[in-house]
Design brief:
Layout: H1 3-19, H2 23-39, H3 43-52, H4 73-91, H5 99-113, H6 117-125
Helix pairs in contact: 1-5, 2-4, 4-6
């Protein structure tokens, strides 16, 4: 499973949970993303290892030294999504009710087009 497919799934699931008003499942969703962001045990990598064998992704490309921040942009994306969902869904739910929908739609579109402005910005800043 690629990161593109996973972003598509993330956006679809978030919008579906918001539509069905499943607050507890949205908190579980945020917990899964937080776990992935902290541990870097990402579901797409784990699925690919199960599918193609344990050697998938074992060889890491040599770091050319061009990244200023030794932190993966996909990992940072997950942490940023969790932070924005905590602020908009948990803390200020009534005031900015549209923001979780925006996050879900942007993840959905990033999965559809393989263009994620947040990841592009993070890589421009210096993330891997």
């Amino acid at each position: 499973m690629s990161e593109r497919v996973f972003r598509f799934i993330l956006g679809t699931v978030l919008m579906l949970l918001l539509l069905l008003q499943q607050d507890q499942l949205i908190l579980v969703y945020m917990g899964i993303l937080l776990f992935e962001g902290i541990t870097n045990l990402r579901i797409p990598i784990l699925v690919s290892r199960v599918r193609y064998g344990a050697a998938y992704g074992a060889v890491q490309p040599a770091d050319s030294g061009c990244s200023k921040i030794p932190f993966d942009a996909e990992r940072a994306l997950r942490l940023i999504v969790v932070a924005m969902l905590v602020v908009s869904f948990v803390m200020y739910r009534e005031q900015i009710w549209f923001f979780p929908w925006f996050i879900g739609f942007m993840l959905f579109m990033a999965g559809m087009t393989n263009i994620c402005p947040m990841v592009m910005g993070l890589r421009w800043i210096g993330f891997r």
